[in-house]
């Protein structure tokens, strides 16, 4: 337990929930994309559907928490860890916050249109 506390123990309950919300948003984006017909899928850059994680240099505790959720808890197995294992190498927290707000304003969060997906990415 001490090891976990060192890696991400200083995060607040609100921060834990927010990270899960970010990951759930990406899950919804991916599932919504799968439900689009081929013509609408072409309107979305599918590379942006990958959850990149957080910056290990400036958001290290968030990176460790995402790794804990995916590696130890087995959540979101569909997320591609890629070679960086959720280290985005650029700060992402503020971008994800803007995206989350836009996603929450969508009436059908798990059945997004191509336009809504683009709006979320552009937030």
Layout of helices and strands:
Blueprint (H helix, E strand, L loop, with lengths): L1 H7 L4 H23 L2 H4 L18 H13 L20 H12 L9 H9 L1
Helix pairs in contact: 2-5, 5-6
InterPro entries: UPF0304_YfbU, YfbU_alpha-helical_sf
Describe the fold and architecture.
Pfam families: YfbU (PF03887). The chain is an all-alpha fold. The protein has six helices and no strands. The longest helix is centred in the N-terminal third of the chain and has 23 residues, at 13-35. The protein is globular, with a radius of gyration of 15 Å. The termini are far apart. 21% of the residues are buried.
Count of β-strands: 0
Distance between the ends: 37 Å
CATH class assignment: Mainly Alpha
Oligomer: single chain
Give the overall form.
globular
Give helix and strand order, one letter per element, not per position.
HHHHHH
Structural class: mainly alpha
Largest sheet: none
User: What's the CATH topology name?
Assistant: yfbu gene product, domain 2
Output the CATH homologous superfamily. yfbu gene product, domain 2
Chain-averaged pLDDT: 94
Architecture, CATH level 2? Answer: Orthogonal Bundle
Pfam families: YfbU
InterPro entries: UPF0304_YfbU, YfbU_alpha-helical_sf
């Amino acid at each position: 337990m001490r090891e976990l506390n060192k890696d991400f123990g200083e995060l607040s309950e609100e921060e834990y929930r927010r990270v899960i919300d970010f990951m759930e948003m990406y899950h919804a984006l991916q599932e919504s994309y799968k439900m689009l017909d081929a013509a609408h899928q072409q309107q979305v850059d599918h590379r942006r559907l990958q959850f990149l994680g957080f910056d290990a240099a400036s958001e290290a505790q968030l990176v460790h928490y995402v790794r804990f959720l995916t590696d130890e808890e087995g959540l979101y197995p569909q997320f591609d860890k890629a070679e960086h294992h959720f280290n985005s190498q650029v700060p992402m927290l503020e971008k994800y916050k803007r995206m989350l707000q836009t996603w929450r304003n969508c009436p059908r969060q798990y059945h997004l249109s191509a336009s809504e997906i683009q709006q979320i990415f552009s937030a």
